[in-house]
Amino acid sequence: MTATATPISPNVGPDATPHDAAPAGVAYPKTIKSFVRRAGRTTTGQAKAFEELGPRFILSYTGQPLDAAASFGRSAPLILEIGFGMGEATAHIARVRPNDNFLCCEVHEPGVGALLKRIGEQELENIRILQHDAVEVIDHMLAPASLDGIHIFFPDPWHKKKHNKRRLIQPALVAKLAARLKPGGYLHCATDWQPYAEQMLEVLGSDQLLHNSTPDGYAPQPDYRPLTKFENRGLRLGHGVWDLVFLRRSA
């Protein structure tokens, strides 16, 4: 990722409170983060899910290469998700793809609690959560060619031009992600902001390790990605949605 401003989260708005790694008053901290801390209240149900399910489904950030088979209790294709919000789409995808393992990064505590609650209600076994900055997870816990897929759905578009540098999809981060995909692995991004979709198409298309699965540009919505309440609301208002699916080259 190129130089960024306040740490950013795929599902967090620009009015969030900066992470404590960024000193107050510093607009462009040197340390790149994938998120912004935002305030939010954890419900009673989410708190109960943290207590009962957290020890099993939340992994500790170790800074050491992840042993995915040990973490999930099985060997299976590994999919990384960056920023799952409240976990609605994540739980759906894990349910319809039971043969895949999903490693999900999110720092927003109510969102983590909400996903844990869904895990319990839907009896999901193939999700593990890292409540930590995804960039550090990528740098220190994921080996090259260790991922079968990556999901980044509706990252913060940072609408103002002066804030575009804060967007998650930047060449340096995409290079990190591409290097961690196995040959033939995929990177799936989705956004409802056309200027961001255009930037994504340009950035992903410029990475030498990736090629577009859809020669014409944007991909049809894969059947595993559901329409969330947020997305349905946008569609009713006439907003578009753009999916991009790029594949890791074999060579």
TrEMBL record:
- Keywords of the record: Methyltransferase, S-adenosyl-L-methionine, Transferase, tRNA processing
- Transferase recorded as keyword: yes
Record pathway? tRNA modification; N(7)-methylguanine-tRNA biosynthesis
Give the EC number.
Answer: 2.1.1.33
Mind telling me which PROSITE patterns this protein's record contains? Answer: SAM_MT_TRMB
Q: Which InterPro entries does this chain map to?
A: SAM-dependent_MTases_sf (IPR029063), tRNA_(Gua-N-7)_MeTrfase_Trmb (IPR003358), tRNA_methyltr_TrmB_bact (IPR055361)
Q: Which residue ranges are recorded for the region named Disordered?
A: 1-23
According to the record, the residues making up region (Interaction with RNA) are 162-167
Positions that bind substrate: K160, D192, T228, K229, F230, E231
Single GO MF descriptor: tRNA (guanine(46)-N7)-methyltransferase activity
Q: Could you tell me what reaction this enzyme catalyses?
A: guanosine(46) in tRNA + S-adenosyl-L-methionine = N(7)-methylguanosine(46) in tRNA + S-adenosyl-L-homocysteine
SUPFAM superfamilies linked to this entry? S-adenosyl-L-methionine-dependent methyltransferases (SSF53335)
Identify one Gene Ontology CC term for this UniProt entry: tRNA methyltransferase complex
HAMAP family documented for this protein: tRNA_methyltr_TrmB
The role this protein plays is:
Catalyzes the formation of N(7)-methylguanine at position 46 (m7G46) in tRNA.
Identify this protein by name: tRNA (guanine-N(7)-)-methyltransferase
